[in-house]
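Progress note, sequence design subtask.
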């Protein structure tokens, strides 16, 4: 009987180790930026980012050619984290249950992401990539609303207007206004968004 040769795993090379260390350093710099923003420093400088990451300013610039490049990478990370808050919602569930599930999920995401999104909004006029990231998130949010409220949208005489209304009612801009302009606590803000979403489809029916 012929015995198949045993495959010996390739020995990691020094190049592999350097790449892994480089990736860890890069991620540490991005997370340092995000941590500073979450703590309230909406415009962290390279020296503050370097200090938080435990690296030199030179190392920051070795990995990112400028602040814009660092913000771009942080924006990608933000989208990745935000995606983790999305939950599947069966469009066949009762309307009130779907609304509650959506509001609960969005509230968790908005509360977690608010600090970095405030910083992104501050930088967006000067960053094409941050505006692209914002547009990507809005597209994903629109797709989720279309799926969650597919039945109501299909029955509406003015589908696009209803979709736009549902989207803005559940958007971060509305949540941010309730939390910062109206100074509502989380539960009170959720009640407002829930009532808004429920009223929209009652009106549209």
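Output:
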């Amino acid at each position: 009987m012929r015995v198949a040769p045993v495959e010996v795993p390739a020995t990691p090379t020094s190049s592999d180790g350097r790449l892994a260390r480089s990736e860890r350093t890069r991620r540490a710099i991005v997370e340092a930026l995000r941590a500073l923003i979450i703590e309230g420093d909406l415009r962290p400088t390279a020296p503050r980012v370097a200090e938080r990451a435990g690296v030199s300013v030179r190392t920051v610039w070795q990995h990112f050619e400028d602040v814009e490049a660092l913000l771009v990478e942080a924006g990608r990370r933000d989208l990745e984290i935000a995606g983790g808050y999305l939950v599947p919602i069966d469009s066949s569930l009762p309307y009130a249950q779907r609304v509650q599930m959506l509001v609960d999920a969005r509230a968790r995401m908005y509360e977690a992401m608010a600090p970095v999104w405030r910083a992104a909004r501050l930088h967006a006029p000067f960053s094409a990539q941050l505006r692209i990231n914002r547009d990507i998130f809005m597209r994903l949010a629109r797709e989720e609303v279309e799926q969650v409220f597919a039945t109501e949208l299909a029955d509406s005489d003015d589908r696009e207007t209803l979709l736009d209304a549902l989207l803005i009612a559940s958007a971060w801009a509305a949540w941010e206004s309730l939390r910062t302009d109206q100074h509502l606590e989380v539960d009170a803000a959720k009640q407002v968004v829930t009532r808004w979403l429920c009223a929209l489809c009652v009106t549209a029916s």
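Residues 87-204 form one domain. Work on this subtask will continue into the next period as scheduled.
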